[in-house]
Fold these 2 entries.
Entry 1:
Amino acid sequence: MLKLENLKKSFGGVAATRDVTLDFANGSLSAIIGPNGAGKTTLFNLITGRFPPDSGRILLAGENIAGLSQRRIVRLGIGRAFQVASLFPTLTVAEALAAAAQAHQHRETVLRSPFPIAATTRQGEEIMELLGLTRVAGILSRNLSHGDQKLLDIGLALALEPKVLLLDEPTAGMGPEERWRMIETVQRLWRARGMTLIFIEHDMDIVFKVAQTVRVLSYGAVLAEGTPDEVRTNSKVIEAYLGKSAHGAAA
Ligand SMILES: Nc1ncnc2c1ncn2[C@@H]1O[C@H](COP(=O)(O)OP(=O)(O)OP(=O)(O)O)[C@@H](O)[C@H]1O
């Protein structure tokens, strides 16, 4: 579904992405891990077109999307949960989702009516159900808890009907219990939608329990990849990244 071939990106003298080649199978659930500054977010920025790569290819279902605009890449089916819930402070959760669905269906035309049509309202309801947001459907986005704001961010990305969804640290800033609830929700939506889902995560317990495959970045390059068991026991990973806490401690 998504293939990265020899991707490179430098910022000034810093090589943030150094010859990264990775293959994400259709419908897979993958984690990207690595120490701070390893280039995880840069990889997402390249995939979503925030920055063009210096060289290399990004193949989505065989088509090279490297260097295309962010808008075009979204339309081709790559979604990313951004911190955007805060952009709709005066809309309720239900309104924000229906508006996003409507805007997507009208291909970015400006919303002219505050009253979304039935189909997009229904689409918003489905997303709320999937993410467990129905209980806060009528709450203004600005009044949501941190966890619900993050869920709404994911919901807004889902409204654009992505084939590949990128989540950059979906559990950041959450306590242990809330983290597990969030990651269960992520797993549920991945199963329900059958999409290719890639998440960046620092909590190793979550990564090793949830991901089908794990990619480890270090200094902008792929240090290791494989199943959670393969990565957990990889000597390079243990040495460079996990240290002695290879069996579960957070990064
Ligand atoms: N827009 C930018 N301009 C300049 N340098 C950048 C930019 N984006 C990333 N970098 C640099 O590229 C390197 C990789 O950063 P990146 O944010 O991708 O790492 P990361 O693995 O996501 O880190 P973290 O876990 O801390 O979020 C860092 O040295 C960072 O300072």
Note: Confidence is low (pLDDT under 50) at residues 245-251.
Entry 2:
Amino acid sequence: MEKPILEVDNLRIRYGGASTEAVRGVSFTLGRERLGIVGESGSGKSTVGRALLRLLPGATITADKLRFGDLDLLTLSEREMLKVRGRRMSMILQDPKFSLNPIRRVGDQVAETYLRHFKCSKAEARDKALTMLEAVKIRDPKRVYDQYPHEISGGMGQRVMIAMMLLADPDLVIADEPTSALDVTVRLQVLNILDSLVRDRGIGLIMISHDLNLVRNFCDRVLIMYAGRVVETLAARDLDRAEHPYTRGLLAAQPRIGGGRAPLAVLDRQPEWLEEKA
Ligand SMILES: Nc1ncnc2c1ncn2[C@@H]1O[C@H](COP(=O)(O)OP(=O)(O)OP(=O)(O)O)[C@@H](O)[C@H]1O
């Protein structure tokens, strides 16, 4: 069997000063696949994603295992972590506006990412950046290269972020609600690009989302998180056969087109869902 890209065992995260853990014993492995993490707001999805990149200043992260390829993410020095972040492991966030520097041209920011990771001339980095903008289906890459972030649309911005990430050729991409700020057509384009990364480049992709329909259609497997723990893991195609009452509740709370005017189900939470061994 192929070695997993990521192995997470009993991951626990406590924000400084918090009385309870935000993540309570999460375990999963990731191969060259699309893994969805879903759950309501505050269930700990983003905290898990950021912990993998060790982007949680002030939080305490413990685990029985937190391995990324041959690296132990728990013991890696910050200096070594700098080589991993953005190079071997990347994150795409919901809104590219917060990730791009507003006062620098888009293309220069992409080229700079390449210069940061690889030794080459500025002209080579520019060529590489243009190739990558083209690879993410930006039609006029030379024009976009010279634009500022406020001059491009959200969908274009998201593709620029993906281009930046691709330059480094990562093994793992964590996409945190990457399409929720996009309209449906652009959303599909961005999903297609992410999908081809998994199929053509063999990366592992973690897709953090609120959207059960999205993960059902896009992912291979899904982790359902509730109050900091994984309550259920299942193949995306089996989502409708989920057994945990929380997952069933989430599914029942999805609005359906053509579903008539019946009131939406309200999730009735049970105290035992909070217990570590459900
Ligand atoms: N920087 C922080 N400091 C303290 N507590 C935090 C911080 N970030 C998140 N939390 C807490 O950790 C818990 C998990 O939050 P997290 O953002 O991971 O959830 P989420 O499932 O990703 O939610 P959302 O879908 O709204 O992004 C929440 O209780 C949240 O209030």
Note: The pocket of adenosine-5'-triphosphate is lined by residues 15, 18, 22, 39, 41-47, 210 (CB under 6 Å).
